[in-house]
Structure formats: structure tokens, C-alpha cells
Predict the structure.
Amino acid sequence: MKNKKLIFLFLAIFLLGINTLKGPTEISILKDKTSKVVLNVPKYCKVYNENEIEINGKKQESYDLNDNNVSLYSNKAGKYKITAKLFGTIPINSYNVNVVPEIKLIPSGALIGVNLNTKGAIALEYEMIEDKDGKMVSPARDAKVMPGDIIVKIDGKMVYNAKQVKSALSKITSKSINMVVKRDDEFKDIKIEPVKAKSDDKYKIGLWVRDNIAGIGTLTCYSEDKKRYLALGHSINDSDTNILMPVRNGTIVKSELISVVKGLPQRPGELRGMISGDNKDIVGDIDKNNEYGIYGDAVKFEAKEGIEPMPIALQGEIKTGKAKILSTIDESGPKYYNINIKKVNKQKTKNVKSMMFEVTDPKLLSTTGGIVQGMSGSAIIQNGKIIGAVTHVFVNDPTKGYAIFIEWTLEDLLFLQF
């Protein structure tokens, strides 16, 4: 018996180390609705909770856990915590329980143009400069400026875009400058020694920069209550450096579909559209770009006739089987197309590959071959509820793709305090 307890003790310490590294598990439940969840902890555990959460129909400080499957309930929206402890003393895991209020969103499926301006100028690639001696050099490369660095300051002065960077560099009169860049959330001071170019006798550092990006995507949904939208279902990354583009400002605008390039194995297709340059066609601004989509306040939202607000479903309600996506693939605008959800990944933390699905709709398959670039963000509907948004396509099979749970987007879409 003593040896058995020692084994459990060592196991507990091991599990504690693992979960400390992982951080708390995220669990979302709907307000005023009992939800079944799986905690995945060993036997001989007690669960301790805050007063707003009922566990297995009771509201008390601690519970003996005899089964991994428990029911959670709360009549108050917010973020709460429960903790599992082995033998009631050794913490095994903690859980953030996000109690989500009743939410209805309007699915869109509209094709949009995205114009995003970055917070700072992004270093793209080196330019080789011929100096006075005829040598081909790049001072920026030699100083270890890296593609993807965000230029913040030049000689002590803040720079916010490529134009300001170009202006600052055009005024170089000395043989060295000091540049501050942001790299992987850290600020680095870099000393660069410009060279005089043989072509025009001006100091240069040999670096291309960018401060904006434009593209086509799909508007996922809109909140009438918050007047906010969600689009894309994944981040906007720089095409050259693959870094997530930091938002200074931007807009989403109406886009007209011009043509469709059908997807084939190893040859992703795409929706080709024309982005409106008219201010009256602005749908919303952009205030956030993260791994799970782009968000902002809606300036003007027009839902297609017949599409009404829908409740959302959290991951515990989502099943494999039939569902629909709402997308634009021709001039008739957003329409529902049939898919089959093949796998639902029960996720403890946010991830864009929450579900795997297969396109089954004959019209969608004949027109696009499945999922193509520009369809990311298409809302996924099951049993009359919004469950997620398209994020990725399988490169080797365009009939299959991934989607993100809608619950992972709510914090940034609705400012829910999780």
C-alpha cells in the first residue's frame, strides 16, 4: 500500500510539471445551459471551484472526482477557475471556465478586399549596392538586420511607415546610423554603416521595406449588438517574411468576383476579385490581426436577404457529419454549400485546426474543385448554429480543409472578458 502511494505521488509530481508548462486548460460553456466536459485527470482527485460554477448539479467548494466526465453549469457569464488536486493536496491541472452568454451572429460569406497598413515598416529583403570601389555590398545585411524586422526608430526618431523610413535614410550624411527594430517581441539596437552608391553618390543601407498589404478573403460573420465583424479565420502574414502583420490601421471593402481558378492537388486554386477603391464601399475598419482572423468595427454591413442572426455552438455541441459553408463563388453572392465534418478535435487551447471537413456539394466541386484561396473565413453552419470558419485547405486534396471553432474568436470579436 505504501509503495502504491509513492507511485501516485511521483506521478502527481510528473503531471504537475507537465501542466505547469502547458498552463491552464480553456473550457467554454454556455450561460444557463448544462455542459458535459472531460477533465482528463487521474483517479483520487478532488476538484475545487469558484462559487459561480455548479459541478454535477451542486455548488460547493470541492468535489471528489470519480469520473473524468463532469457537468458544468453557471447562470452568470464570466471567467472562472476550477482546479484538480491529487489526494486533495497536489495540484494536477487548472481550468479556465469561460461562461459565454447567449450570442447570435449574422453569417456573411461575402467576398471582401482587405487593405492593411502595418505598425511600422517591415524589412523584406536585402538590396545589393555598388559602392565607390565597385564592390557589391548590403550594409543592412552586414549589420544583421533580418527580414521580418519591424523598423521602429532611425537615429532616435520614430518611424511609422515605409515613406518615413525612406525619408530618414535619404537624409543620411554620416558613416553610421543607429536603428531600433522589433524582432519576435524584443527591441534590438543595430548600428549600420551606410555606403555611398556609385550610381548616385548617396548613402544607402541596401534594404527593401513594406508597410501595407492587400488581398481577397471572406467575411465570416457580424454582431448586431457590438457592431463588429470577423473575417478570414486566420492571420494575415507577410508573403515574403511570413511574419504576422502588426496592425496600424486598415479597412475591409466590397470586392467583385472576377474569376475562379479551380483547385487541383498540389496546385491551390483561388478566387480572383477586384477590390473597390471607393470610400462608400468600405465595410469596416481593421483593429486586430491575430492567428484566428481579422476583426474590427463594421462601418456598413449588408446581410444577404434571407440570412438571419444565428446562435453559436461551442465545441461540445459539434458533431461529425453533415454541415454547410457560406461562401461566394459566383456573381449570385453568398450561398450555402454542403460539406461533411470528418473530425472534431477537442481542444484545450486555441488552434486554427479545430475541425477537418470534406466538400461534398456538386456545385462547389465543379466550380472551385473544393476550397480555394479567398474562401478562408467562410462560416460553417451545423443544425442552425454557427460553429466555426474555414481556415486552410489540404494542399494535396482541395476537397478537404480545416476550420476553427467559433468560440476561439469570441474574445476579440465581442470583447468578452475571458
